[in-house]
Amino acid sequence: MPVTTRQQGFTLLELVIAMAIFAVLGLASWRLFDGVVRAERSGANHEQYMRTLLRAVAVIERDVLQVTVHPLVLEQGVLQLQRGNWRNPLDQPRSELQNVTYRLDQGTLWRESLGVEHPVAQRQKLLDDVLELRWRLYDGKLGWRSDWPAAAGQPVDRPQALELTFSTARFEQIRRVLLLPGSAS
């Protein structure tokens, strides 16, 4: 009578197939994990850049909302203004005045401020990788102007709005129009 033996274990072919399946699953899992990590890094970098961009625009907006009655000067892409600080509940100015200048220097947008009563100069880097920067002021009679004040001899009203347009390495064009204090809504 023939004796039948039962197989105890795996054949070499079964082991090779199992190892190949686990290797493919491991490689697919690693690729998926690597993709998730790269997307997370990219998202974090984009979020940081957006925060920097929003902070820069908020600083400019804060200065524009606090601009004083002294004239604004805009020439060759450099904006100069004088700002006070927050107004009190009776709408009276308070705190010290500052002369503020915005300029683009080798792809970096700078804010330079100098106190009028206490001359302490400060230079603040607002934004890197700026490819182009344009400022314009709006007057109801003259329209949008890239230089301010207008040519000598022309009566000049206080500008009503400020337009900021800039391009960065990540964004083709960003445009922000800010109403100046005292302008008609």
Automatic annotation (TrEMBL):
Primary location group: membrane
Location of this chain's protein in the cell: Cell inner membrane
Classification lineage: Bacteria, Pseudomonadati, Pseudomonadota, Gammaproteobacteria, Pseudomonadales
GO biological process, one term: protein secretion by the type II secretion system
SUPFAM superfamilies linked: Pili subunits
Keywords on record: Cell inner membrane, Cell membrane, Membrane, Methylation, Transmembrane, Transmembrane helix
Membrane topology, record value: Single-pass membrane protein
Family assignment from sequence similarity: Belongs to the GSP J family.
Name the record gives this protein: Type II secretion system protein J
Record-level GO cellular component terms: plasma membrane; type II protein secretion system complex
Spans through the membrane: 12-33
NCBIfam families: IV_pilin_GFxxxE (TIGR02532)
A Pfam entry, by short name: T2SSJ
